[in-house]
Amino acid sequence: MKILVTGGLGYIGSHTVVQLLQNNYEVIIIDNLSNSSFTTLEGICSITNKSPKFSRLDLRNPLKVQQFFDEHPDIQGVIHFAASKAVGESVEKPLLYYENNLNTLIFLLQEMRRRNLNNFIFSSSCTVYGQADLLPIDENAPVKTAESPYGNTKQIGEEIIKDFSKSEKQFKAIALRYFNPIGAHPSARIGELPMGIPQNLVPFITQTAIGKRDKLSVFGDDYQTADGTAIRDYIHVMDLAEAHMVALERLIKEKQAKNYEVFNIGTGKGSSVMEVIKVFEKVTGEPLNYELTSRRPGDVEAAFADTTKANQELGWKAKHSLEEALISAWAWEKRLAEAEKNEI
Ligand code: NAD
Ligand code: WQD
Questions:
Q1: Which ligand is nearest to the CA of 127?
Q2: Are the beta carbons of 164 and 129 closer than 8 angstroms?
Q3: Tens digits of per-residue pLDDT, 200-236?
Q4: Computed from CA positions of residues 187, 192, 197, 202, in that sequence, does the dihedral angle turn out positive or negative?
Q5: What is the CATH number of domain 2-183+234-265?
Q6: Could you tell me the residue ranges of all domains in the chain?
Q7: Which cofactor(s) are needed, names only (predicted)?
């Protein structure tokens, strides 16, 4: 069965491609390499001993998208990761984000309708909940006014898919609302490749530990949490990749799957920034240089998932611990450093 993975050379996409290939799906990747590297394809091939097809294509070009589907009439499902994801950049360049995250979605859905292609998985985000009133957060929690254009593209993206699913009775879609993905493949052959200064906690920690950054700023120690630092639900990217495959199988195999469904994908456990630092230090033996600084604008105090729906209805549950995720992130950072040294 042939599955199109857009953004399949990106962080979450590449781990999902590995998962699919190892489960005997045929995979074709679209990526424009705007936030990824061709070397990731080599990593995927070396882990799986398989070579997925790759098309370097910008999904903002509807004619190219059309042409692509003309050339690949046997695609049976689409997992749509391709998007821009930097929250801060989205505030500075909102049109870029609306164009890249929404036009691409619309062009894909148009093509899927034209071809009567009905299985679609969308990368959504826990950002749609903002600061939820109740913790843990279940899927019925209200979607809050978005803090950023990026967050808004996820909310609008979900609305577009929901409306489209209502109008096309055959069409089935699942939106996965990821909490905080971290970690890397245990082989350390693929992982997160932040361009420039990382905005997310774990790549900043690993880059600090390896000596690329001076110190980590802990954004805020005056939250209403046990240690004063903010709480998130950090999910190993391997678990996240598996969730995509399970969701895809639900769409393809289960005749009863609803037209449009939303699932939280997290561990159900909240960890504070200080806890993440302490666990990182413990499992790697690397002391981390950090300082407590003021809150980062737009950050919420605490967010972690109620995963009951995914556990019961998808039959999926996160298996990996924070410790495992941080060990894999560190192995990946060391591998990157090694590769950089060899290039010099
Ligand atoms: P990523 O940037 O690593 O991967 C996205 C990939 O899409 C990149 O390889 C990029 O080159 C490609 N791409 C972007 N625009 C494209 C276009 N117009 N045409 C073709 N390819 C294009 O990001 P990621 O962390 O793997 O995230 C994947 C998805 O999950 C995104 O939709 C993101 O918004 C969502 N998400 C990510 C997180 C997170 O923390 N990483 C959390 C929640 C949701
Ligand atoms: C985690 C915690 C920071 C960096 C973001 C997006 C969200 C989603 C996931 C896509 C927070 C603290 C961080 C640092 C720190 N992405 N921190 N020092 O903000 O929960 O979510 O990524 O959909 O939309 O907003 O993740 O990793 O940036 O931060 O203290 O240098 O670490 O304040 O409490 P966040 P993050």
A1: 2
A2: no
A3: 999 999 999 999 999 999 999 999 999 999 999 999 9
A4: negative
A5: 3.40.50.720
A6: 2-183+234-265, 201-232+269-303+321-343
A7: NAD(+)
Q: Which residues line ligand 2 (CB under 6 A)?
A: 85, 87, 125, 127, 180, 199-201, 204, 216-219, 230, 232, 273, 296, 299
User: What distance in angstroms lies between residue 203's CA and the mean position of ligand 2's atoms?
Assistant: 11
* In the predicted structure, residue 122 carries a pLDDT above the cut 70: yes
Which pLDDT belongs to residue 60? 98
**Among protein residues, the one whose CA lies closest to atom 34 of ligand 1:** 85
Same fold? 2-183+234-265, 201-232+269-303+321-343: no
pLDDT of residue 253: 87
31 C-alpha to ligand 1 centroid (Å):
10
The CA-based angle 147-297-233, given to 5 degrees, is 75
In words, the CATH class of domain 201-232+269-303+321-343 is alpha beta
Banded model confidence at residue 46, pLDDT cuts 50, 70, 90: very high
Ligand 2 pocket test: pick from 153, 200, 212, 295 the residue with the most ligand atoms within 8 Å of its Cβ: 200
At residue 205, φ and ψ (nearest 5 deg) are -65, -50
245 CA to centre of own chain: 14
Task: Average the pLDDT over 239-261 and give the result.
Answer: 91
Per-residue pLDDT of 305-317, as tens digits, reads 999 999 999 999 9
Catalytic residue among 11, 150, 178, 234: 150
Tell me the one-letter amino acid at 315.
Answer: G
Ligand nearest to the CA of 124: 1
Asked if the ipTM is above 0.85, the reply is: yes
pLDDT at residue 344 in the model: 67
* Ligand 2: nearest atom to the Cα of 151: 24
Q: Tell me how far apart the alpha carbons of residues 248 and 173 are, in angstroms, rounded to a whole number.
A: 9
Cα–Cα distance list, 223 to 268, 296, 318 (Å) = 20, 12, 27
